Amino acid sequence: MTNRRQETTVAGRGLARWGLALRLTAAGLAGATAIGSVLVPVVAQAQDYRFTNIRIVGNERIEAATILSYANISSGATISAGELNDAFQRIQGSGLFEKVELVPQGSTLTIQVQEFPTVNVVSFEGNSIMKDDALAKIVKTQPNHVFNPAVAEADADNIARGYAEASGRYGVRVDPKVIRRSGNRVDVAFEIIEGSVSEVQRIGFTGNHSYSNRRLRDVLATKQSGLLHAIISSDSFVPDRVDQDRQLLIDFYRSRGYPDVQVTGVSSEMARDRNAVFMTFNINEGQQYKFGNITTVSEIPELDAAEFSGLAKIRTGSIYSPNAIDIAVTRMEQLALRKGANFVRVDPRVTRDPRTQTLNVQFALVPGDRLFVERIDIEGNTTTQDNVVRREFRTVEGDPFNAREIRNSAERIRALGFFSNAEVNTRQGSGPDQVVVDVNVEEQPTGSLTFGASYGVSSGFGINIGLQESNFLGRGQYLGVQIGTTSDNQQSSIDFVEPYFLGRDLRARVHLWYNTSEDDNSAYSTKRLGITPSIEFPVSENSRLELRYTYSVDRLYNVTSEEEAAASGSSSWSSPILEREEGERTTSSVGYSYTWDTRRSGIDPRYGFTARFGQDIAGVGGDVESLRTTALLRAERKVWHEEVTLRAELEGGAVHKRGDTQLTVLDRFSGYGKVRGFESNGYGPRDRNAPNGDALGGKYFAALRLESEFPIGFPEEYGITGGLFWDTGSVWGLDDKIGAGGIEVDDGMKLRSAVGFSIYWRSAIGPLRLNFSRAVKKEEYDKVQNFDLTISTQF
């Protein structure tokens, strides 16, 4: 290179690594001792000085008066050699000068300085994981500021720390270099060697007797590095996540009846090359307890304990859960408020019986402090409107203060998913009976654009595009757009949800859709265009009711008659039943769905039960008059120390015509997805005398699905488990049964069943499921499917 730059590499420690000299020259003194590059007077040969003239040399930007203020030497005053050294230390310690010399010459003291250079450019080299903009926010060395080597050293440490916090890289090396320029200016370049991510290679536990290491690892936010460690961020070691993992373990055990559980320590050992971490959680489980006697007492004369005792809903002998107590307390305090008792606190008094390993709980209604909510202050919400946060409070300004309700409100705010952090605290208000609630939140991205791929043996390869925004315009509303296409089907939809319609707990939704399809097991095509506005509200703690209206335009077409096929020389034609159903018509219906879901309260995390019942009545205008009814029961249970999950689903439906309406294949049920082991529309009534053997669907369907999911030996960080399933069900029932050749179609209820094995992969890029099945009960004309692969990928 013709223009070779002078470069100082920072490789050691201290100021010497910058090649900068700091020294005190004691010329004219009786003696001096050299320590490194600094000369200090020998204290043994003490000498006093008296300077009538102090001369400043070498300063350009810094005023002489500033240097004199650091020296603190008065003209004409007598000073010792030690005081002269102190003056030197003060000037050098100011951090303003690269070189300082104090030269006594008779009655004149010359203070010669060389100022630190000005920073010209700050650059970063070798970085790819963290961009320049992010690094520039970390360093304090800035262009057009005075260069300070100590600050640059601290910047290098902060950059390394930033890599550790942002991406779990603890082996990062940062070498600051100084490049001299003319005019006492320097360029500062931070050379970065990013290295590899410090992965969590192993997570172990000690003291756990009730649950296996595999089960406990599934609880933690931190994961072991596995097959996809290059794209999974949760397997990177993040020290701040350790406290979260500790609390997750405690909550896990307490919710399963272990009130005394302790995580006594967490050891994190880093490998020598700093690219791997080995974590061990030390657990003291304690004993598992069950609920004993549940009683209620009142220390407030106007409140009858008998009215509150039924709200506990805790069964004696059930596994202890702190969540069950919290829910019971909330119910009782809400009843007290409805009765006008504003300052009532429900105190759960827990006593244990180690002999029977039970916890007796007495809910005591006691007088609470007479405090009022003066105001609720919300800060940090740059996008989200105040009312979105404020509506999660059941308390408004002027209401009696209830600490439990404030805590519940904080949990609801966090559950919104709009904020990376949400803190709710209280402080003294303007008076002794006033409380101010402070809400501090940190916004996080709430929108996502997804591109997906899907594959099914029946549907083939497909592309999916989705746009979701869960906090639309900062109003807490949801907007979603989905577009999907396969070789035979195209589906698109738009959803808009207002979770607090009219300022109440009313979930208003508008759903629009446009779908087209061609059925592989029938020679016809369909188009569906519709809109469904609905409103949903809670009926009880675990149940909700949805009311809806649906308007749709549906078309059945591409049906080929026997005459048309003969005219075109084709031997393939459709069932006469489909011919009579061909055409376009409108449907206008009102409906409702009632849902009961025990997972809403979450008292027992090992068990979940869901029940759903719905009906749609068509005939409020439109061309169709019908009554459509569907029902679903679903239960899930974790057994064998929660290593195995058992699921059961019972589903059924019926559709009946009203008046003279003719039901078509668009109104009837198909067997798709109800019994595995069969193709889409692969079973049910079929016109076997038509060349196409058209599947016609049925007015009724029923299905029972039983399955289990369990480990199959893969490390849990891979997210691969196995399962067994058994499905049985049927689709049956037609109004119009006269098919090809005038022969009646068999539409009787004939049970089908299949057994199979599943492989689940809960990967970071989406869920994958492979089903290997065998139909054990079928009709000769059914179309089976022994293998099915479903992939849903988002990136």
UniProtKB/TrEMBL annotation:
One of its GO terms (biological process) is Gram-negative-bacterium-type cell outer membrane assembly. It is found in: Cell outer membrane; Membrane. Keywords: Cell outer membrane, Membrane, Repeat, Signal, Transmembrane, Transmembrane beta strand, Transmembrane helix. Residues 49-116, 117-195, 371-444 form the POTRA domain. GO terms for cellular component: cell outer membrane. It holds the Pfam family Omp85. PROSITE patterns: POTRA. It comes from the Bacteria. Its main location: membrane. The chain crosses the membrane at residues 20-44. Part of the Bam complex. Part of the outer membrane protein assembly complex, which is involved in assembly and insertion of beta-barrel proteins into the outer membrane. Belongs to the BamA family. This is Outer membrane protein assembly factor BamA. It comes from Paenirhodobacter populi.
